[in-house]
Design brief:
Helix content is about 75%, strand content about 5%. The protein has about 325 residues and is mainly α.
């Protein structure tokens, strides 16, 4: 296993996503040259870093042939819990560290619940995680009924700051790539891919399929919590509905990155490229001067075309 997670046929599945990302990046530069400047790139990474983490979260469960439609709701729940803890404890460094630990724990607990529902109770993943998303969203509204509670300055200033002249968001993105490079070399990810490739054969070979799939959901929850920390730093506030529209984007980024929804093959790196491509597509639609009432339609159609191209190219490459 390498950073460039390969499919069952040995092809680099992230290449179509990388090509689409490069093409959309060039189009952004042509339509708006300022989009290639450092401040614009920092804004892009800052805005879509949460989607990058969430796409990786989705990819992990999809590797096993599962899916998680609650990642956006987990993001929203962790967001309001983190902001509430920091706000109630004065917003100092100790409160920030405690809030981060609590947020990651909540994300892991949500992932564990999803894993038990899907694997232990044998509910359909798409149905179980959709139902749990409603529960998580309800909990988020209970924690913070009204959006807009500000995050402490120490948190969002650190997120938007520079370290040794390099924007912190760039360092986080590099850290994400490093984490991916580590994870794809772990035994657990290889086992998750094996389960997704052929669950029956994995079980007959002695792999603890149930435990592996549950661990995949726990990892998904943790990455969703990391995404929540990023979106908290970007928006500098708590909002129980902040993750409502991001779940399907995480699925789109995963598919665009070359991961098969049937499981068994794909690339976490490709999902990161897919998330960035979606962000650049949204920017491109804006730069082209699309009227506001048509922007959602234009963005959706463009992402759909990108998905179709990515899937077509992936199939040709694998064949």
């Amino acid at each position: 296993m390498t950073l460039f997670t390969k499919s069952r046929r040995g092809k680099l599945t992230f290449l179509p996503a990388l090509a689409i990302l490069a093409a959309v990046f060039i189009l952004n530069g042509v339509t708006e040259p300022n989009s290639l400047k450092m401040f614009a790139l920092k804004g892009l990474i800052s805005t879509y870093l949460a989607l990058m983490f969430l796409a990786v979260a989705q990819t992990i469960v999809v590797f096993a042939g599962d899916i998680d439609l609650s990642v956006g709701a987990i993001l929203g729940l962790v967001n309001v819990i983190v902001v509430t803890i920091m706000d109630s404890m004065g917003g100092g460094l100790s409160s920030v560290l405690l809030a981060i630990a609590a947020g990651l724990s909540v994300g892991a607990a949500c992932g564990l619940l999803n894993g038990l529902l899907v694997v232990r109770l044998r509910l359909q993943a798409i149905v179980a995680t959709f139902a749990s998303s409603i529960v998580f969203a309800g909990c988020a509204l209970w924690v913070m009924p009204v959006a807009g509670v500000p995050a402490p300055a120490i948190f969002w200033r650190a997120y938007g700051a520079k370290f040794l002249g390099v924007p912190v968001v760039f360092l986080i993105a590099i850290g994400l790539l490093g984490l991916i490079a580590y994870l794809v070399r772990t035994k657990l990810i290889l086992q998750i891919l094996t389960v997704g490739d052929d669950q029956k054969a994995a079980y007959q070979s002695g792999l603890p399929v149930t435990a592996i799939r549950i661990k995949g959901y726990i990892m998904c929850g943790v990455f969703a919590a990391l995404a929540a920390l990023c979106i908290t730093g970007d928006t500098a506030s708590g909002d129980p509905n902040v993750g409502a529209a991001i779940t399907l984007n995480s699925v789109a980024a995963t598919v665009l990155g070359g991961t098969a929804l049937a499981g068994g093959s794909g690339s976490m790196l490709g999902s990161v490229f897919g998330a960035l491509a979606i962000g650049l597509i949204n920017s491109l639609v804006f730069f082209l001067g699309t009227p506001s009432e048509w922007q959602n339609l234009a963005q959706g159609l463009t992402i759909l075309v990108a998905l179709m191209i990515g899937i077509f190219v992936s199939r040709r490459v694998q064949s």
